[in-house]
Recover the amino acids of this structure.
């Protein structure tokens, strides 16, 4: 069940909310928590009931480990065992096929392993629980009861795609008595955040997917993709991914809020960043935080000299790349970001001593285009496709210009042909692009770069765990408030997004 | 404080319900896909709403549920545009005929729509127009092709879902969008379908620009992106498996099913040849024949016929008017791929009244196929020798593609 589906929004969610508050208001707090855990497991099992056992075993195992680590039996060996077993399970489900495929290719062996299907969200719940084990070992956790722990792991708003929550943020919230009484305040703040995310996902992101799919399919075929089509494709993908993922995070944050729970911020207008290091503090923030606290710092962080710091940065990013999926393209993506961070780090050191500062526009453009180039392997199916699209973006594959311009080349016609410039229509390879598509693109651009983000709109009502100073809108008076105008606006966005859930539009590309 | 949130929530719910109801009422009233019985009048006859043209996969699937036809025509735009209601009623015995073809259909979708029609109605006779591109397994299914709106799944088990149609036609952004377009008259009224799934009008005869435009699409995309392959996207099988399933379905339900290979213009075969796909094209015909004969033995029934209209006939070699031939247009073709309804009539006549020996509509058999394929190779050479300008056009299109 996806958040952006009829069955979730109109059936599952209302039932869970009504159930939770009717049980909770009668002071049956433990039953109310059990209800949420059961609902979350049902939500998880909806995809594939077979994987329910994996998450339940993982939860039982880690809770038992945590109990052992917090008591007398605290030992480094036990912690190591705990981490190894968690990572082992992750490695088996997520990377085993990848490993055998590569081994077969490399050593010309023929291990025929049956395809292991990836249990949903295993990367997320594994990470959350490893953090829990480490902190328990460090003595940074309090005694948590088993039910609350189960809810911490399975709580459906954040279970599938994050934000990756930290026990320190979540478990104290579950212990509050005020949680169980229906609060219209929380309910409708949550619903409004959810709707903003729903709109981003169902309208903005899904509405952009078609062009992206097309571009990347062309990139995978033997066709050299030309300059403008390549840029348009990668830009659209950057927008699609941002609106998709940040929209889904907003939906999660809103859903949790309907139950009175505040989740951590996950996106903070990342594409507005002026350097790559800031980008990583604003994109998938809870993952960055996890990688920093549980990988980069334990590796030594910046405490062991400059060279070690740069190596640590690189290592963290490549592993972070692999976390996204078992494939060389993800490793390449991580490697690129590692390289960007290394360059930025060195550059900062160099320029600070010289007192040079890049103009804002150039700094922004450098950062954004680096991110854009790196998204290509993240989305492409193969390395060939990646290189094809990169060549296109660099202009090596030539340029297509609108047909009407071809009439005015005069005596330079030959020159244009020699320089791989043809007048076949800018997007010739990917089909026709209409005025509406261009307006749509401009709208995405304006929203991503100039509009306040969800947290900023909602800033008066503590939408996320972090302090509001991180995401303030300085001058605009657009704050969300429970006013008539905002209720109409949110209703409109909700209906628009609901109507967009079913798309029947025909795809005009391959028609004849 | 809590009270202001309560009021906010109440207003939100009220506005939401209001907007949804307005959307539903509007879509129902306009009925932009002609699924709630609303037809429009054009040239004195009842036609479907122009929105239907934009959503053929949905509109035709729903029409089958409502009309339960005895005769079904399947295939791509070539079959969708090339036959008139008059021709169809002349050659088919039944009255309840539906033209289920739609542009860009592939062999899998042909199977799925046939299963849909067979599950819902007393289908007795079927005609399927086959095209080489339909067997290209590398093309991902178009997002608009929806399994859910068909009556059975690929294993012929009922799906029993009706909510999808309701939501798509009353509560989707597309339904609202098309309703606005139809209500405000922004739709194209020259591209209209009849309630029986046939085109309202024949397509106009072509001139050279139409040919080049259509060939360019085949050269730059259809046959080449992604690289042509019979292997399906999931790598689990080949597109011929779907063809086989169609054959089996017909045998199991005693359906009089006839296949025909579309009579596109000779330049279309030249495109296939120059892209280096001629051998694949021959293999395609052999393989289909092999499958029909294999299944006929397995079912102890006569083999389903495949009539081959591809090749070099007096029709397919019709001269294409050049830019200098002002005022001229073609009699048989509306572009390199699509034949006009006059030729569609001859196709139906040769299928239903012919002997099957005519080279235009030759019934493929193990005994004649090799001879036939060899003749086609020879005829291609002759065509190339006598139509140097046409050949040069296609060479130029292919060269333009390779450059980038």
């Amino acid at each position: 069940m996806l958040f952006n589906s009829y069955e979730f929004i109109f059936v599952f969610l209302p039932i869970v909310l009504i159930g939770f508050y009717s049980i909770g208001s009668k002071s049956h707090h433990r039953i109310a928590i059990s209800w949420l855990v059961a609902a979350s497991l049902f939500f998880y099992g909806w995809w594939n009931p077979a994987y329910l056992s994996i998450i339940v075993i993982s939860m039982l195992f880690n809770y038992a480990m945590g109990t052992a680590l917090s008591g007398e039996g605290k030992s480094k060996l036990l912690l190591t065992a705990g981490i190894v077993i968690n990572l082992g399970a992750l490695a088996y489900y997520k990377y085993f096929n990848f490993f055998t495929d590569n081994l077969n290719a490399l050593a010309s062996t023929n291990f025929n392993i049956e395809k292991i299907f990836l249990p949903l969200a295993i990367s997320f719940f594994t990470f959350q629980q490893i953090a829990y084990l480490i902190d328990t070992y460090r003595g940074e956790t309090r005694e948590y009861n088993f039910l609350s722990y189960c809810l911490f792991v399975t709580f459906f708003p954040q279970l599938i795609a994050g934000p990756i929550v930290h026990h320190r943020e979540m478990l104290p919230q579950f212990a509050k008595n005020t949680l169980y009484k229906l609060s219209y305040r929380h309910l409708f703040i949550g619903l409004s955040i959810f709707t903003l995310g729903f709109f981003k996902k169902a309208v903005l992101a899904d509405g952009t997917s078609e062009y992206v799919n097309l571009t990347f399919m062309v990139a995978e075929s033997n066709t050299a993709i030309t300059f403008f089509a390549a840029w348009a494709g990668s830009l659209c993908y950057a927008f699609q991914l941002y609106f998709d993922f940040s929209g889904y995070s907003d939906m999660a944050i809103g859903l949790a809020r309907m139950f009175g729970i505040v989740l951590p911020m996950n996106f903070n207008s990342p594409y507005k960043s002026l350097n790559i290091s800031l980008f990583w503090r604003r994109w998938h923030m809870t993952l960055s935080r996890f990688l920093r606290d549980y990988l980069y710092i334990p590796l030594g962080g910046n405490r062991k000299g400059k060279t070690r710091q740069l190596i640590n940065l690189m290592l963290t990013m490549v592993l972070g790349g692999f976390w996204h999926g078992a494939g060389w393209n993800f490793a390449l993506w991580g490697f690129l970001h590692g390289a960007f961070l290394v360059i930025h780090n060195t550059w900062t050191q160099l320029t600070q001593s010289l007192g040079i500062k890049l103009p804002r526009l150039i700094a922004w453009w450098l950062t954004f285009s680096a991110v854009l180039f790196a998204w290509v392997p993240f989305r492409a199916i193969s390395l060939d496709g990646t290189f094809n699209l990169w060549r296109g973006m660099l202009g090596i594959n030539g340029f297509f210009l609108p047909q009407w311009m071809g009439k005015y080349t005069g005596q330079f016609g030959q020159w244009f042909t020699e320089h791989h410039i043809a007048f076949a229509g800018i997007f010739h390879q990917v089909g026709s692009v209409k005025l509406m598509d261009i307006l749509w693109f401009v709208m995405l651009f304006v929203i991503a770069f100039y509009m306040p983000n969800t947290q900023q709109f909602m800033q008066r009502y503590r939408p996320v765990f972090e302090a509001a100073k991180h995401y303030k809108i300085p001058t605009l008076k657009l704050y969300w408030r429970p006013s008539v105008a905002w209720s109409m606006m949110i209703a409109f966005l909700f209906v628009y997004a609901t109507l967009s859930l079913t798309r029947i539009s025909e795809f005009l590309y391959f028609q004849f | 404080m809590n009270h202001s949130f309560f009021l906010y929530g109440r207003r939100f719910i009220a506005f939401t319900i209001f907007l949804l109801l307005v959307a539903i009422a509007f879509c129902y009233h306009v009925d932009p896909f002609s699924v709630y019985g609303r037809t429009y009048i054009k040239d004195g006859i009842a036609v479907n709403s122009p929105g239907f043209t934009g959503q053929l996969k949905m509109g035709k699937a729903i029409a089958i549920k409502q009309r339960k036809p005895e005769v079904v025509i399947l295939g791509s735009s070539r079959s969708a545009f090339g036959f008139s209601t008059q021709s169809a009623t002349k050659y088919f015995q039944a009255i309840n005929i539906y033209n289920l073809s739609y542009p860009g259909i592939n062999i899998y979708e042909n199977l799925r729509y046939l299963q849909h029609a067979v599950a819902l109605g007393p289908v007795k006779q079927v005609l399927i127009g086959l095209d080489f591109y339909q067997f290209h397994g590398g093309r991902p299914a178009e997002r608009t092709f929806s399994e859910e709106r068909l009556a059975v799944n690929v294993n012929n088990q009922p799906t029993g879902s009706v909510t999808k149609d309701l939501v798509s036609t009353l509560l989707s952004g597309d339904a609202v969008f098309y309703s606005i377009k139809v209500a405000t008259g922004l739709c194209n009224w020259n591209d209209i379908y009849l309630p029986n799934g046939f085109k309202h009008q024949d397509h106009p005869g072509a001139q050279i620009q139409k040919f080049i435009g259509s060939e360019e699409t085949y050269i730059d995309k259809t046959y080449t992106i992604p690289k042509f392959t019979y292997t399906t996207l999931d790598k689990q099988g080949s597109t011929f498996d779907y063809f086989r399933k169609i054959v089996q379905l017909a045998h199991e339900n005693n359906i009089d099913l006839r296949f025909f290979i579309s009579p596109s213009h000779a330049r279309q075969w030249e495109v296939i040849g120059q892209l280096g796909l001629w051998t694949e094209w021959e293999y395609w015909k052999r393989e289909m024949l092999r499958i029909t004969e294999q299944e006929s033995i397995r079912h102890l029934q006569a083999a389903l016929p495949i009539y081959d209209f591809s090749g070099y006939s007096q029709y397919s070699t019709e001269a294409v008017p050049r830019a200098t031939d002002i005022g001229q247009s073609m009699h048989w073709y509306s572009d390199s791929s699509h034949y006009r309804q006059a030729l569609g009539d001859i196709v139906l006549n040769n299928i239903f009244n012919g002997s099957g020996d005519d080279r235009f509509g030759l019934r493929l058999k193990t005994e004649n196929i090799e001879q036939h394929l060899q003749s086609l190779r020879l005829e291609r050479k002759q065509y190339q020798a006598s139509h140097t300008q046409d050949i040069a056009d296609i060479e130029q299109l292919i060269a333009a593609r390779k450059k980038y």
